[in-house]
Amino acid sequence: MTKQNYFPKDFLWGSASAAYHFEGATDQDGKGPAVYDVVPGTQEKRTEKPEPGNLKHEAVDFYNRYKEDVALFGELGLKSFRTSINWTRIYPTGVEEEPNELGLQFYDNLFDLLLENGIEPIITITHSGEMPLHLADNYNGFANKEVVDYYEKYVRTIVERYQHKVKYWLTFNEVNGTPDMPFFYAGVSQPADTITAEQMHQITYNMFLANARAIKAIKEINSDLMVGCSTIQGPYYPMTAKPEDTLKAFSDNRDRLAYTDVHVFGEYPAYKLKMFKDNGITLDATDEEWAIIKENTVDYLAYSYYLSGVSDSSEDYADEGDVRKAVNVFSDEENPYLEHNEWGWPIDPVGLRIILNMHWDRYDLPQFIIENGHSQIEELEEDENGNLTVLDDYRINTLKSHLQQLNEAIGDGVDVIGYTNWAVMDFVSGTTGTMKKRWGFIYVDRHDDFTGTMERYKKLSFDWYHKVIESNGDHLFE
User: Fold this and answer.
1) Overall average pLDDT of the 11-16 stretch
2) Strand 226-228 and strand 230-233: pairing?
3) What residue numbers bound the domain in which 245 lies?
4) How far apart are the C-alpha atoms of 126 and 128, rounded to whole Å?
5) Who wins on pLDDT, 395 or 326?
6) Is the pLDDT of residue 179 over 60?
7) Which residue, of 186, 211, 367, 475, has the fewest CB within 10 Å?
8) What is the predicted pLDDT for the residue at 328?
9) What are the distances in angstroms from CA 85 to CA 82, 170, 180, 255, 385?
10) pLDDT tens track for 413-445
11) Where is pLDDT greater, at 2 or 61?
12) CA atoms within a 13 Å half-sphere pointing along the CA-CB vector of 125
């Protein structure tokens, strides 16, 4: 591995969060209930209505503490910060004629403060879990094309408002997680086991249409804005050198890229259309809609990279033409050549270089790593000076190795806009619904039993990442 620094001078070093993970204030200033308000834990297990016991309702109270938190982001030295706009702060049920001004003003204040601190906002229009609950329970979310209309109205409202404050937009978060978690990712409230393969492909199509209509709307408002759509990415490796395993890995990798194919090329890959035909799947799609999808494609690729997968041809998890899908965890097979974290996720820095080059060869578009990080159960401890902190060398090592491989990919010729790791601070984890799975550079004194002062403490990795940013990456090689 070279020690040459390839990071461009304008590289957007950053960090990330999302509204439902850290804002809290779930019913403050006119906000309506969202999907996440009825999902106290993780996955698809919901309550009928928002109930006490959901950590996401208060989260880490960023909504009321954003000024002190952004000051910390500035001290960290961030050049960019990715978060989301909470849809139900703007349209509490999704169907209102006029937006909620208090919600709009909050994001005006937040974006102004970020910009004052030299931090570029990278904004997800709606993160997973943030669809208005009314649209989920009364319209069945993106299973209903009418919801695409409400989504576009919301997009136009926020982009017209913030077009001079936000350059980089993301239409959805990890949209290819939808088949595995249709309620959380797409607001589809019907029981998951009643969704047929054809219905699931229709939901996916409706979200492709929503993505394209959002891009069209954004470009009509301001053609200088940059639009992407977040997916989950990572390479699959064949279990062995057996040709069947290599064929399986090829199929799994191709399917992993299928969403991005539509985002970039504006049409389904031929093998998908053949799969539809072979399985008698017919989409409710018009020529006009196909044209919108074809003509409104992404400006850059944005994705989460946490891990890689292993493809085993002896496993039969085909689902009427689609390989097994999972959110973040790709396969049950363990890669013996990789270390694993305490959640069983493989740590694969080289996989990041592989996926960057794979995308570059296939799409020839700039890329933005918008999630990548390390989570662990952590407690406050004293450093050598008696200050409360977390001595998270493991986080430093994980991020350092991934950023070194990102540097290698840039050296390979890949165009990378920026990197916003997950996450800037501790908050409610999306995969567990708890505080104990901690991701941040900043420790938040908040616990699963709802105790804690909400005080913020800088971890050891805070100072390390500050030095990385300040040196534009040189610190990675010291």
Assistant:
1) 98
2) unpaired
3) 12-477
4) 7
5) 395
6) yes
7) 475
8) 55
9) 10, 11, 24, 29, 39
10) 999 999 999 999 999 988 788 999 999 999 999
11) 61
12) 31
Task: Give phi and psi for 3, each to the nearest 5.
Answer: -105, 10
Residue 74 in any domain: the answer is: yes
Q: Please state, in angstroms and rounded to a whole number, the distance separating the CA atoms of residues 81 and 66.
A: 13
pLDDT of residue 322: 42
CA 478/CA 348 separation, integer angstroms: 21
Supply 416's token pair.
Answer: 């990378």
Position 317 pLDDT exceeds 60: no
Provide the token pair at 327: 């959110």
Q: Which of 130, 174, 378, 408 is catalytic?
A: 174
Reading the block at residue 108, the tokens are: 């005006």
What is d(CA 443, CA 143) in angstroms, rounded to the nearest whole number?
39
Rounded distance between C-alpha atoms, residue 135 and residue 189, angstroms: 9
pLDDT, one tens digit per residue, over 49-90 is 999 999 999 999 999 999 999 999 999 999 999 999 999 999
Q: Are 99 and 90 in contact (CB under 8 A)?
A: yes
Active site residue 382: no
Q: Is residue 340 part of a domain?
A: yes
Residue 213 DSSP SS3 = helix
Per-residue pLDDT for 319 more than 50? no
Cα dist. 242→238, 245, 249, 446, 458 in Å? 8, 5, 11, 49, 48
**Contact (CB, 8 A) for 186 and 143:** yes
End-to-end CA distance of the chain: 14
- Cα-Cα-Cα-Cα dihedral of 339, 345, 348, 352, to 10°? -170
Q: What is the pTM of this model?
A: 0.95
Distance of CA 44 to the CA centre of its chain: 18
Residue 179 in domain: yes
Name the catalytic one among 23, 120, 289, 371: 371
* Residue 6 belongs to some domain of the structure: no
The stretch 241-270 carries a mean pLDDT of 96
**Domains held by the chain: number:** 1
Give the pLDDT confidence score for residue 431 in this predicted structure: 74
Q: What is the CATH number of the domain that holds 175?
A: 3.20.20.80
* Residue ranges in 257-327 assigned as alpha helix (H): 258-265, 270-278, 287-295
User: Is-catalytic flag, 371?
Assistant: yes
Which residue, 55, 76, 119, 63, is CA-closest to 442?
A: 76
**Per-residue DSSP letter, 33:** P
> In the predicted model, what is the mean pLDDT of residues 140-156?
98
